[in-house]
């Protein structure tokens, strides 16, 4: 007596659907993060470092291991302001 | 009317006035977060004196540290730049693998011990800098030398 594969077909469909949506979501997250896995539990230190990475490389997840910063890096940290009103 | 907390998220101002010439110019460190995290313990090993000086100056300055501690800050920048330059010259491949792994893993050091061990041994041989975790208890193995990382996702990267 063989394996009753018709009974296991619904399980295969469910697993396939979950797997496909998981893979698609993971691919979308990788595309959003420059080919890397997404960052989670990002605190203020990490946000500050990612802002510094964006000032250095132009991308939020870009990394570089140059020793010297590009010209103008010292001046590119902006003052964050509020629009005034009277 | 009572004042409300300011919300500094509406406007950016980039001030391009450079520093006056009386302040010596120092090239800023150009590495981003993952290479800096990877090299941080080696920077600590070589630059401990300058870093401690700077932290003490900032603590004692009581708010005026941004202007008063520029001299100590220049020393910190130069020392960190020298460590990064040496690591780039001697151990570039291991260094790159380690920080690429860190970048993929949310900057968590315990996921990337497999690439950290060759980096540590290479830096120890060529530059004589050893990674020590400050404040670790003496009678246990330090976390980066243990065989099993209990929070790592997979066995292959431990």
TrEMBL record, chain A:
Keyword terms: Electron transport, Membrane, Mitochondrion, Mitochondrion inner membrane, Respiratory chain, Transmembrane, Transmembrane helix, Transport
UniProt xrefs under InterPro entries: NADH_Ub_cplx-1_asu_su-1
Compartments, record wording: Mitochondrion inner membrane
Ranges that cross the membrane: 7-26
Cellular component GO terms held in the UniProt record: mitochondrial inner membrane
Topology of the protein relative to the lipid bilayer: Single-pass membrane protein
Keyword Signal: no
Pfam families associated with the record: MWFE
PANTHER family, A to Z: NADH DEHYDROGENASE [UBIQUINONE] 1 ALPHA SUBCOMPLEX SUBUNIT 1, NADH-UBIQUINONE OXIDOREDUCTASE MWFE SUBUNIT
Family of the protein in this entry: Belongs to the complex I NDUFA1 subunit family.
UniProt function note: Accessory subunit of the mitochondrial membrane respiratory chain NADH dehydrogenase (Complex I), that is believed not to be involved in catalysis. Complex I functions in the transfer of electrons from NADH to the respiratory chain. The immediate electron acceptor for the enzyme is believed to be ubiquinone.
Protein's recorded name: NADH dehydrogenase [ubiquinone] 1 alpha subcomplex subunit 1
Organism: Friedmanniomyces endolithicus
Lineage: Eukaryota, Fungi, Dikarya, Ascomycota, Pezizomycotina
TrEMBL record, chain B:
Coiled-coil annotated spans: none
UniProtKB keywords: Disulfide bond, Electron transport, Membrane, Mitochondrion, Mitochondrion inner membrane, Repeat, Respiratory chain, Transport
First-listed, main subcellular location of the protein, grouped into a coarse class: mitochondrion
CHCH domain boundaries: 91-124
Any GO BP annotation: mitochondrial electron transport, NADH to ubiquinone
Keyword hit for Cell cycle: no
The UniProt record lists the keyword Lipid biosynthesis: no
Compartment list: Mitochondrion inner membrane
GO cellular component: mitochondrial inner membrane
Family of this protein: Belongs to the complex I NDUFA8 subunit family.
Function recorded in the entry: Accessory subunit of the mitochondrial membrane respiratory chain NADH dehydrogenase (Complex I), that is believed not to be involved in catalysis. Complex I functions in the transfer of electrons from NADH to the respiratory chain. The immediate electron acceptor for the enzyme is believed to be ubiquinone.
Protein name: NADH-ubiquinone oxidoreductase
